[in-house]
Amino acid sequence: MENNQPPLSVADALSDCVLPQDIMFCIVTRLPVKSIHRFKAVCKPWCKLFTTPKFMKMHHAQLSQNQSVMVLAPNRGFTFSLFDTNEKKPTNLADPFPEVLFGMQFIGCCNGLICVSFLPVLQIIELWNPALKLNKSPTWPKLEVGDTTAMVSLGFGYDNEGHDFKLVRIVVSVGKKKKMRVEAEVYSCNSDSWETIKVGLKFIVLGPKNNAIVNGNPYWVARADGNEVVVWFDMSKRVFNVLPLSSLSLKIREIPNVKLVDWKGSLAAIVCQKKDENVVSFDVWVFDDVGKMWSKNHTFGPIGLKVERVLQCFQNGKIIGECLEDGKLFVFDSENGGVKEIVIDGARKGSYQVYGYTESLAYFKGLAKEKVRTEEEELEIDKDVAGFFKRCLGIELAVPLYCRRTQ
């Protein structure tokens, strides 16, 4: 039965409030997710207002001004740690995937929703909203992998026009005479279904997940016609696009020194210039969508640290990376030049996967409460890693597919 009622306006939802509606709306869009979730019970108009895409977008935009850091690190399984760059110590979150012992990939974080998957073929995917303690396992992808598969890669993002979280799974195969075939499929959270799409380009992505997410669109470092390029997927138009790297004159694949990031809403590359392992500068190269060129936007430094690699950049311009000697994380504030070190208990050097995170009301049909295991259930979790993957993936893991490369 169709619902012919007009959409609820902000004025209607807040009409009974004592305070003026504009002040009241300003207040509620700045409340924490936990408070909003509790206030849904006040009345039906509030409950309806708080679940509209428009309100969720405005609420998330307000909270995004104080972005936190989400870290995934192996530690007797995997540990999700959340910390504000102004705090001294991170908070470890309850692991929603306790049975996973290795191979977890932090695909990305977009609008408060986290996506993780599991190597080598990225068929098991989990979507998780830590603030609401909800998660969902999407249906299995349609594209299969086989002996000719050279690469499987996953991208995550948000369709701002369709108000829909989406996944992109790329499968690259090499057939007879080394002929390359690129296939892709898109998962829609709104429809809970996968759809194979036409690629129209020939490229091979150089990693199992997107390198950056900018304005909801995933970006990969890739190779096409013998050249290193950046491939990105337009979540709204559902098409792949290729960006040149010629004007940048850098090998982005050298991950320790160059990192693709979202620099205040634009695609950028942070280049870590070193001398004797000490950071001389962080150079920020921003891609101009109009001129289709890379230009050096900022240079920060020198930094009094020996840096292993740059991990991520956040909307406020703070850069996070890993120290060379002790494996600690550091946060560099590009506005005042301050440096702060962060310790993740039990994490191994070189194991960090990091994304910027802002809690949100992100929800779609199928998200369900995280299952809390009893002590007895925890003891019964199968510790046989090979057996776990064999059951979940239905394949033998003789050679990780993502390690194969075409000659």
UniProtKB/TrEMBL annotation:
Annotated CDD domains: F-box_AtFBW1-like
SUPFAM superfamilies linked: F-box domain
Lineage top rank: taxon: Eukaryota
Pfam families associated with the record: F-box (PF00646), FBA_1 (PF07734)
InterPro entries: F-box-assoc_dom_typ1, F-box-assoc_interact_dom, F-box-like_dom_sf, F-box_dom, SCF_F-box_component
Domain F-box: 19-59
Listed name of the protein: F-box domain-containing protein
Source species taxonomy: Eukaryota, Viridiplantae, Streptophyta, Embryophyta, Tracheophyta
